[in-house]
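Sorry, explain these tokens?

***
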Amino acid sequence: MGKAKTESRLKPNQATATAKFIRVPPRKARLVMDAVRGKYVPDALATLKFVPNFAARAIEKVIGSAVANAENGRPFDANGRPLPALVAENLKLVSGRVDEGPRLKRVQPRAQGRAYRILKRMCHISVIVEEAEPKPRRERRQAASRRARAAGRTGAAAAAPTTGRAKPQTTPPEPPETEPEVTAPETGAAANAPAPEAETE
């Protein structure tokens, strides 16, 4: 009865799946569900693949079941005909609920005859996927940005005349101006001495 009511509340482009009595505390399962709610199904499954948590495995199975229901287990319309199957790549996780289930009561023995109560909690997981607009691809944007960066690098290389760091042009310093040396006139015997004769062969 409850399943029929749930399916009647769904839109024609939606599908649902539920897993009950999962041996995971609801608090831990909600942390994982909050990380994938609102994402496309391929992105959500890729995220859950790298989450080292048992709750991630359970949520991954529930999402896979919802995708299978969207492709095969479609409800019937007013004329008794099944609704067309949905495209798995365009499905989006629009709703994800984690409700508390029953609790198993256990006892931990303690000192002096005492006993501590242990509660092993369970949860119920339910998801709803909806066919949305196709996700825009990022490969084209990345390729365009790579081409733009490559064009910018080639343009900058063509504009630069030389490669490497340009060295500043420096002129050698001019030598300081020196005054001509003035010698005193020779007097005495040195002045009257004859000049030395040039050697001839």
